[in-house]
Structures are given as structure tokens and as C-alpha cells.
Please model this.
Amino acid sequence: QVISKGLCKPVKGRINKGKNGTQPKLFCNAIAAEWPCWVGLAAEVVFQTVKMTIVLKDSQGNKFEGGEVKYYQGGTWQTLGTTSLAGEITKEVLPNVSSSFRMIYRGITQSKSVTPTANMEVLYQTARVTVRLKNSQGNGISGGVAKYGVLGTYTYTWYDMGTTDADGGASIELLSNASYKFSVTYEGIWKETVSQ
Model:
């Protein structure tokens, strides 16, 4: 197989010779997709991207805004943007080439690697978590300050959940399938859980 220089043209992107000049290599989103290509007098090699949709839903299945999305390109994580009011953000990628995405929401990061196909959705979903403070009779106590902790490189970073209500509860939506610690402070005394 021989490449005739300048005659094997992609619709977009750039084309480089492969090993020994036998394969064209198109770079799109820093992912290389290679096709063997024999060229006679003229040729056009078309690489078609597909649209990926990254979706953030709450525990009720409703899409919502505010999740930061990143994608892996060129050896580093690049910021794609933040989910819109519709709870979505889109990205054009080459099909059938592994792509990695990250969702960052309320201090926690989740990564997913997928093989893109047309109109594919990458779903991230939250769970509703309630910290409850009760007295010795099992009744809820208001006024406790609840927090959740996310493990960093060496230590936990703590984030506010709110103050317990009349039923003793403080609730928040957090990314599911992740590990957290929880704590409550009541009358100046602080108590934390083990990782959940």
C-alpha cells in the first residue's frame, strides 16, 4: 500500500504519514484514528465524528445544572464546561475510540471511559443523602450542623450540608457510587462517621 503525497485528504483535521508512509493518520481531539489507504490518481478519506452528551441527573431522575465536566486529551484533563440548565453538555469525538470523561460535583470527582457511538449519553447521577441527629428516645433533634467529607490526596476536605431540622435531618444530593465521610456538631461536640 502506497500513499500518494497530497492526494489522500481528510475532510477536517490534519493528516500525517504513518510508519514507512503506508498509513494516513488523522488527529481529531488528540485521538489518532488510522485507516489503511491505497491511493491511485485521487482520493478523499473521510473521518466522521459523533456527538456525545454528558448528562447529570438527581436522585429523582431530573437533569440539573452545575456539574463541571472534563475530558482526557493529550495526556491531561481538559475542561469541557459546566452542565447547562438542561443538565447536559455535548462533545464531538471520533467513534469507536475510547474516550474518558470526568464529572466534578460538590467536591467529588467521578471518571468514566466509554467507546463512543452515535447519540450516546454518558450518565452521572446523584443520590439523596440524609444525616439525622436523634436523642436517646429516638426523636429528631434540630440544630445539629451536618457536614460531609471528601478524601483528597492525604486528608479529607469538609463541606457543609446544613443544619438539622425539627425531624433531626439535613439532606443533600451527592454523586452516587462514591465514598464519603459524614459528621455532625451538636452543642460544641463534633462526631464523624467512618467512610460510607
